[in-house]
Amino acid sequence: xxTLSSMLTVHAQxxxxxxxxxxxxxxxxxxxxxxxxxxxxxxxxxxxxxxxTSSCDGTFGSRxxxxxxxxxxxxxxxxxxxxALQRDFYSVKCTYGGTAIAPNVTAAKLPVWYAETSWISTHxxxxxxxxxxxxxxxxxxxxxxxxxxxxxLANVTLKNLEEGYDVKAIMWHxxxxxxxxxxxxxxxxxxxxxxxxxxxxxxxxxxxxxxxxFIFGTISHGSTxxxxxxxxxxxxxxxxxxxxxYIDMSDAGLRSDNLHFDGPWTEYLGRKMFNKLVELQLVDxxxxxxxxxxxxxxxDIEVEAERSWDFTTPWSQExxxxxxxDDKWAALSQWGYRYSGSWSTPTELQTSTGYKFPExxxxxxxxxxxxxxxxxxKNIGLYSNGIYLIVPKVKPGQYIMIESVTxxxxxxxxxxxxxxxxxYLDCIQGGTASYQRQKNVWWYRDTFTEPQDMHFCIVGGGxxxxxxxxxxxxxxxxxxxxxxxxxxxxxxxxxxxGLPVESPASSGFYISHGRKIIVR
Length: 520
What we know:
By secondary structure, the protein is α+β, with helices and mostly antiparallel strands. Helices cover 21% and strands 27% of the residues. The strands form 5 sheets. Strands 9, 10, 11, 14, 15, 17, 19, 20 and 22 form a 9-stranded antiparallel beta sheet that branches. A hairpin with a 3-residue loop joins β10 (329-332) and β11. The chain is elongated, with a radius of gyration of 27 Å.
C-alpha cells in the first residue's frame, strides 16, 4: 500500500514533461484574444512557456493573453495538460506564419523549414527579422530555430531540474505555403521530421527521441490555400514513417479570411491534440470532450467590408456644389471634372478651398497636373504612369479590392501595386490587364504584424476606378474558385497537375497566386 509520503516520492521522481509546437500560421494562432475561451482567461499555474522562433536565452516564462494578441491550438492543449498533470510542465513553441518547408517558394525574407542535409548544414537558425537580405540567406532555418532553441533551454534550465526532463512529442500544423512545391512535400516533410528527431536526440541523449511522436493536423478543404497533393503527401508520411500521426481537419471551419481556423475549430484541434497524447500514453489522464463544431456550409455569403468606397453611388448635393464652384476642377463632358493641379504628396481629394469630398474620405492620391478626374456617381479617373492611389493602414491578413476598367482596350494598362510593396502583397486576381471591368484583389500577407499604407499605381494609361474595398474576407468567390478571364504573362500560373505555364493557352481550371481560377 502506498503511503502519502511514498506517493509524493514517486511524483517527485517523474521527469518534467516537455511538449513542442511548430508550424506556420495556424500553429502560431490567428484567433484574437477577444474570442479567448473563458477557461484560458485566468492563465496557467504549472505551465513554463518559451517561444524560440526568433530568440532564446535558455529560460522559460509564463504564457499570458494580452489585449490585441492571438491564441492557438497549443494554448488549449496546454490547458488540458495542466488539468491532467497538476504539476510543472514545459511548452516550447516555434512558429511563423506563411512559411514553407521548401525553399524559394515564399517571400524573399521568410525563413523556411527545409532540412535536406547539404542545405541545412550550411544554414543557421533564424533569429529574427532585423537582418539584411544577404544575412538572411544563411540564417533562415526554422527547423534549427526549434532544435537549437530546445538545446539552449536544456543547457540553461531543463538539465538543472532535479527530476530531469522528458520530451514527449512535437505538435505541428503547416503545409499551405508549400502548395507551389506540392510534388516535393512528401520528401521534404519526411526529411524534416527525421532531422528534428535526430537533433532532439543529440540534445537529450534519449534514444526514444529518434522516433519521437510527431502529431499534425491536416489543412481544411475550405482554405483558399488547400492543395490536394500536399494533403496526400502528409497522409502518406503518416503511413510510411513510424510514430507520425494526423488529426483530420479537412472539414474545419475558417475565419472570414478563408485561410485560418476559427475559434471553435482552433479549440477543437487543441483538444484533439491532447487526446492523441493520452491515446499514445504520453500523458496519464482522461480524454476530454472534443465534439466537432458546427460549420457554416453556406459559401455564397456577402463579405462585410471593413472600409469601402463606392464611386458609382450618388454624391451629395454639397459635394456637387463644391466641385462645380471650384476653378481647379474643370467640367468635362463625359469625364466629369478634371483637376488642373497636382499632388506631390499623398492627399485626400478636395477642392482648392480645402473641402474634402466625404465620398473619397480616407483614400489618398498622388498625381501630376491634369491627371485626375471625378465623375460623380460613376467613377474616379486616373491617367498616365506614376499616378498613385494609397489605401492607408491595411492590417495583415486583409484583402484590398480595386474594381476598375481601362480607358482603352490594352493589355498593357491597368492597376498594380508599387514595386516597393511587393514584399507585402499577394496578387489574388487581376493586378494589371483590366480593360474589361473587373475586381483586382490583393492580400496583405499575415506574416507581417503592423498595419501598412498600400500604394497602388496606374500603368500604361487611363484607368477608371469604380470601387475600393478593404475586408477581412476575400471579396471573390469564397469557395476558393475565382473566375478570371485574363491571366497576365507574368502571373505565377500552374495547371491542376502542377505544371507551370506562362499563360494559359486554353480555357479551363488553373492555379494562380495560390487560388483556383477558371480561365474562359
